[in-house]
């Protein structure tokens, strides 16, 4: 039970943080639970795709094998299915009515995946693994979700750039995820310093994107309130 708490605690904390950052029109709890559940379910197709792609690793020597596993086997497989889950869940939902909503739902989908993955790792690796992943892997998944949701939210409201923004919503999380895993998969000790710096970068960039679209939500809300006021008869 203690290991389960250690595994799920960072997921709960980040989910609560994102929920309370959505100050002006909170998303329905029902949909947020669906997003977590959908993210958790993506583990199934991810396992199948990763198993298939892993079978080609032998074709790549040295560091290229680490790159293949990081960018293709892990990052591509996981972020692709998170994107699919996010798209199916909310793209046509009437609740998706602010740019910041893209971040909220994408993070919840990512946290659903991270919760299942983290339980498996922590149950196998123990308490120390849980603590390490609480400050690295789980927040990283959330930040990949922030990145995906940032561009996904923009894509919803900028139709002329929609195709390119959707591509960025998938491509940039794959790139960030791939870099994260590549540093780990190489096994090169001095890259630990790079890894720490990259994790800090993820934290900073994730917070910046949250702040940017959260501010955008304020402006959207003020605009909607103004329109509502002007439309009322005197």
TrEMBL record:
One of its GO terms (biological process) is proteolysis. Pfam families: PrsW-protease (PF13367). GO terms for molecular function: peptidase activity. It is found in: Cell membrane. GO terms for cellular component: plasma membrane. It comes from the Bacteria. Keywords: Cell membrane, Hydrolase, Membrane, Protease, Transmembrane, Transmembrane helix. InterPro entries: Peptidase_PrsW_arch/bac (IPR023596), PrsW (IPR026898). The chain crosses the membrane at residues 31-49, 102-122, 134-154, 174-204. It is a multi-pass membrane protein. PANTHER family: PROTEASE PRSW. Belongs to the protease PrsW family. This is Protease PrsW. It comes from Draconibacterium aestuarii.
